[in-house]
TrEMBL record:
The lineage of its organism: Bacteria, Pseudomonadati, Pseudomonadota, Gammaproteobacteria, Pseudomonadales. Keywords: Cell membrane, Membrane, Transmembrane, Transmembrane helix, Transport. Pfam families: GntP_permease. It is a multi-pass membrane protein. It comes from the Bacteria. One of its GO terms (molecular function) is gluconate transmembrane transporter activity. It is found in: Cell membrane. PANTHER family: GNT FAMILY GLUCONATE TRANSPORTER, HIGH-AFFINITY GLUCONATE TRANSPORTER. Belongs to the GntP permease family. This is Gluconate transporter. The chain crosses the membrane at residues 12-32, 38-55, 67-89, 109-142, 149-167, 187-207, 238-258, 278-299, 311-328, 396-418, 430-455. GO terms for cellular component: plasma membrane. It comes from Pseudomonas eucalypticola. The keyword Transmembrane helix applies.
């Protein structure tokens, strides 16, 4: 056997084993020793990095780079979303929206209404943005309806994460469509066809089943923040309340339309893209909430300012944990885990859809990033897909998106956001988030296989 092949196999085997040991260590430290997730992930990162052959100082630099990168993207968005939710709760806007939604769906139909609302809000938004916007509505809906928190939350989570995986214009599906030269409109149509049954199974049906077996109460700090009783002189109307929460959605949708339908250098296109940046869109929404929901409804300026500042303290632990997850992801990437999985995939002889799904699953498990999983998988498969028909290319792109959300765990920012926002234990987070994501992923795979058989 070629000595270089032996060295390659030995290195890759060691790298995969180090990933597994690091993840197991993180789980044990959190669940058994009760160490904070941030510290547990830091320890696991050094185990993975040093074990994979990186120098300790390289591990430290990779961790800092990854943590800074994800906090630069998600940290400010989470902070702005927390402020927006606090103002909506304090002013009564969240109660107004929840009361109206309760009028549309009561009892058994309420989870279905939540899933539909989450799909509408999540269509143009990153999952992190959609989640921070939906959390106050979820808490108030659970309080007003008297239903279990998970029965309301899981359909909302399913609606947002499914679109994030299967529907352009989200980054993952768009990357796959571009790399595989698939048709965007056809991919959106097929993606919606897959998204509907995925949301139904992972949302209302799974939420009803799990809420009967797991009792979860809103966490003390965030629950008090987002579930506060209105204190304004008058409650804002439903129209302005809905407009404020949909403002980031509309701005980001405008940015997407500008990228697709307008010439790139026109003033209108540049303006829409600027306003549609998540940071800008949420910042504008917070300012609009302060003026239209706070000041205009009789809340003193000092009280609004206190509400905004109060919104930041409960998310400090969440931000540290998400940053640590980003550090772990970057360390594994620097150690070469993507290349390892890519090399293993090149020798596989499987049907296109199954191969695309499995590669994306492996990369997501190793790196914790749907974007990395999608980009790398599409790059590996692109040369093989040159002769495929338009429908087949679109289905391969969707299979990649489905694989990129399989069983997300401790190296995933969304995992820690769900855990901290809903006050879950580690085991509970696996049931709420990891299993939910797995249902979406498997339904996406089965759906692409059935459509391939039916349409080609």
């Amino acid at each position: 056997m070629d000595p270089t092949a032996i060295a390659w196999l030995a290195h890759d085997t060691r790298l995969i084993l180090c990933c597994l040991v690091a993840i197991a260590t993180i789980i044990v430290l959190i669940s058994v020793t009760r160490l904070p997730p941030f510290l547990s992930i830091l320890v696991g990162t050094f185990i993975a990095g040093v074990g994979a052959g990186l120098a300790p100082e390289e591990v430290a630099k990779a961790f800092s780079k990854g943590a800074g990168g994800i906090l630069g993207e998600a940290g400010i968005i989470i902070a702005l979303g927390s402020m927006l939710g606090a103002v909506m709760a304090e002013s009564g806007a969240a109660d107004r929206i929840a009361s109206t939604l309760l009028g549309l769906g009561k009892g058994r139909s309420l989870p279905w209404v939540m899933a539909l609302v989450a799909m509408v809000i999540g269509l143009p938004l990153f999952f992190e943005v959609g989640l921070v916007m939906m959390v106050p509505i979820i808490f108030v809906m659970a309080r007003q309806s008297g239903q279990p928190l998970l029965k309301i939350a899981i359909p909302a989570l399913a609606g947002m994460t499914t679109l994030h995986a299967l529907m352009p214009p989200h980054p993952g599906p768009l990357i796959a469509v571009s790399a595989l030269h698939a048709d965007l409109g056809l991919t959106m149509l097929l993606g919606f066809t897959l998204a509907v049954p995925a949301v139904i199974l992972a949302g209302p049906l799974y939420g009803n089943w799990l809420s009967r077996r797991m009792d979860v109460q809103a966490p003390a700090e965030l629950g008090a923040l987002f579930d506060a009783k209105p204190s304004g002189q008058r409650q804002p109307g439903f129209g302005i309340s809905l407009l404020i929460i949909l403002l980031p959605v509309l701005l980001m949708l405008g940015s997407t339309l500008a990228k697709v339908a307008l010439a790139p250098e026109t003033s209108l296109s540049v303006t829409l893209k600027f306003l549609g940046e998540p940071l800008i869109a949420l910042g504008i929404a917070v300012l609009a909430a302060v003026v239209c929901l706070g000041w205009a409804n009789g809340l003193p300026r000092e009280q609004v300012g206190t509400t905004l500042r109060k919104a930041l303290a409960p998310i400090a632990v969440l931000l540290l944990t998400i940053g640590a997850g980003g550090g772990l992801k970057q360390t594994l990437l620097d150690a070469g885990v993507s290349q390892t999985i890519s090399k293993a995939a090149e020798g596989a002889h499987l049907p296109y859809l199954l191969l695309a799904w499995l590669i994306a699953v492996a990369l997501r498990q190793a790196t914790g990033s749907a974007t990395v999983a999608t980009t790398t998988t599409a790059g590996i498969l692109a040369p093989m897909m040159a002769g495929l028909a338009a429908t087949q290319s679109s289905l391969v792109a969707l299979a990649i998106g489905a694989g990129s959300v399989f069983f997300c765990h401790v190296n995933d920012a969304g995992f820690w956001m769900v855990r901290e926002y809903f006050g879950l234990q580690l085991k509970q987070t696996i049931w709420v988030w990891s299993v939910l994501q797995t249902i979406v992923s498997v339904v996406g795979l089965v759906g692409t296989l059935l459509l391939w058989w039916w349409l080609t």
